[in-house]
Amino acid sequence: MAAMVKSFTVLCTVVVFGILLTYYNLRANVPTQTENREFFSELQTRRNGKHSFNIVNAPRSSSRDYNTQDSYPTKGFVLAGDYWEQFSSASRNLQNLQCWAGKLGVKVLEPYSVNSILRSIIGPLGNRLRFSDLIDLEHWNKESVRMGRGEVVPWETFIKEASRDVILVQFKFTSGKTKTLPVKVKKNPSKFPSREIRYKEGCSPKLNNDIVSKAAGFKVIRKVCLNFEYGDALTMSEFDAMIYGPLNANKTTVYFREWRGLSDIGRITVKQAGCSNTGLQEHMPPSPRLMKHVHHYIAKYLHNGDFIAIIARIEKAKKGLDNREGSIEYCLTKTLEQWTQFSAKSNMSRTFLSIDMGKYGSRSFKQNTSVLQEFNDFFRGVYGNKWSIKEWERSFEDIGDTSDSGYVALLQKMIVTRAKCILFVGGGSFQKHALALYQTRVPEDNWCIRTVPVCTRNEQLTLTQT
User: Domain 286-455 maps to which CATH number in 1.20.59.10, 3.40.50.11350, 3.90.550.10, 3.40.50.2000?
Assistant: First the structure.
């Protein structure tokens, strides 16, 4: 009996010891009251929108890492949601933004291209065409740095270096003539709002924080809206101060909703901005991908022989024709006449056509039934029954492996620069760039260039006839 009591006592002791040991182990891993308060406070903060939060991945230990702002890089960057206008002009606006970035000592996020429009987002680009798919970014940056402009960097660099503190900026532009200050205001400025108030007057930020919500850690800390309806320009220091306020440019990311470029006149008006858009065309070298497709096209469809190129910008021609006698039909008829004479004189049978009409035409050019019929007649005049317009359009898709109109337009332009002789119709920055590249590649004694005066705006394109 005594033995049984002794065994029972030992058993009870072991059980009690086991329970106590288990209790102390569990107690050691349970968060303290202070830790619980910290955790739920952070949880509430994240739910209120200051950080993204995924309950599945919610940390549970006191050694948790919330990936807070302190763990992020803090370098200054600038970017624009839209660079306005189409590719050639948008690229100049990009260089203009680089100029401002260079003065601040910050970098620019590489934009992407969709049908000749340059845009940027704070987020991965996926399958979008990058700017570097169109332009040799290494050469572009080399020239940019030489000119004192900020470097353009890809998303992969941006996400590693950029400050997560974001300033959202939008501008209000006049839809007509720039407003001027009344004479009575000039004589008595005290009766008119101050410059700072005037530039913010009637300009409410309509920017959604969702612009940056998809990228980890980015948060909007400041919104700015400036009204550029009045003609009196800001100084550069005033402009910088209105954008950044008390914040450090080198530790902030600035997102412009639309960037039209700084200039002494018009657009974003800043006195002595020093960011002129002149002299930039020669610094737009094509990407290796684009040049590979250029050589492939010339080999397949032009058989690597000499050819005449017609580069026609009918949208530009139409703007010039609106102010004098003539029509698009008359312009295209004169172009065919000039091309026929040109072909006979140069003794070349191959012709390449680049034109802003049809599927890959200008986005801003409204092509009604009448205009499309004139294009069809002109196309037949150049190519006869060699192929249809659809077959001609498909040839660029097959070579370029994309149906993006911006990429096809650049492919056409670069093919034009490989021609022996070029006939320019219409004018504009697109043709200016083609001309600059042609004249860089071909010795001056061998230049073979013509224009169609009746439909080429003299202020848009100046050529020495040969």
Answer: 3.40.50.11350
Predicted structure pTM score: 0.74
Residues 6+ apart with CB under 8 A from 273: 99, 100, 236, 262, 263, 264
3-class state of residue 151 by DSSP = coil
Same fold, 77-282 and 286-455: yes
Q: Would you give the distance in Å from CA 198 to the centre of its chain?
A: 29
pLDDT tens-digit profile of 32-91? Answer: 444 333 333 433 333 343 333 222 222 332 322 323 445 678 899 999 999 988 888 899
Task: Identify whether the C-beta of residue 454 lies closer than 8 Å to the C-beta of residue 334.
Answer: yes
- For residues 448 and 420, the answer to whether their CB atoms sit within 8 Å is yes
Locate the domains of the chain by residue range: 77-282, 286-455
Q: Which DSSP helix (H) or strand (E) runs through 452?
A: none
Distances (CA, A) of 104 to 213, 249, 253: 26, 7, 12
- Beta strands (DSSP E) in 148-261 are 152-153, 165-172, 219-227, 234-235, 253-256
**Summary mean pLDDT of the chain:** 76
Query: Residues for the chain: how many in total?
Result: 466
